[in-house]
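Figure S4 source data
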Amino acid sequence: MVSIFELLKEYIETGRIKLDKSIHKELTTVHDPCNYGRKGMKAFGEAFFEEPRWITQQCCENYVEMHPNRMNNFCCGAGGGAWAMPYEAERIYYGRVKAKQLMDTKAKMVIAPCHNCRDQIMKSLTKEFDLGIETKYLWELVADSLIIDPWTEEEIKKGNELREAQNEKNEVDLDQEW
């Protein structure tokens, strides 16, 4: 299994996708979701801290870190299913620390890879604390930064070879009947 972080990083590093960081000139930061950080480390022995930062920096001209970050970053207040539950006042109360942390960065855009975190920051904290920031998923940022040029015959051939190598590496058989 490959995470979205590993896949996007591989695509960028190999030139499979090309990005234009001048599209995003505003100061940008990354929120470290509990699920991809602390919980991932505890449950699977792997946390995704560096990959989202590296990918974000490939898409944005101006990057700033939140403090604290990585394993010590603050929860946004929507974890543990709280976003889906009717505890808005509690979510906002616990999210106040994240809102302050975001304000301190002076960032105009925050990248939140987790759907609960994105919704909490975008739909709740930004309104409640008048943050004036844009919130995006990591893959949304990448999609918005894509350079889409028609491929040459050589690039098509290389892309097909990369696809086949990836399918072989991941033991994907597209001819297999279900």
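Figure S5 source data
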Amino acid sequence: MEKPQFLIVGRIIAPRGVKGEVKVEVMTDFPERFSPSEEIYIEGCPVSIEGVRWHNGKMTIKLEHVDTIENAEKMRGRFLEIPLSRAHPLPQGDYYQFQVVGLEVWTSHGEFLGKIEGILPTGSNDVYVVHGHHGELLIPAIEDVVKMIDPDRGRVVVELIDGIVC
């Protein structure tokens, strides 16, 4: 899988108020990156953040050159991104989604199960969507199941538990 140039850190949900502010779904573990004068990208174009505030647990931001409710409405659904070079390093054993999607999945007994085609966030843990000769498998990304992730070798090793049917 090709390495992305940008990482998604948020998504504009809707306008807020009449002065061009937008409600944001935060999609990063590092929300501090949304601060005034910081630069983010929308569809590859840099945009400065003019202001940030929290309201009922949701982030509202004011973007440069978005000054009306009509302009804010045009931003609905767009992703907020940062260059990959600005990604925070993760702790040992944690990975960005782009590092996991596309990896081959093997059992600890050497059986090839397929490739990770997507990741479903469930709240308590992620679930890897694996497509292979067994069809679609949903593999919980938990310690009891995922024994090794090695992006450099392009593989994940799992120990299947009851309920994961091949």
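The first helix runs from residue 69 to 74. The domain at 97-158 is CATH 2.30.30.240 (SH3 type barrels.).
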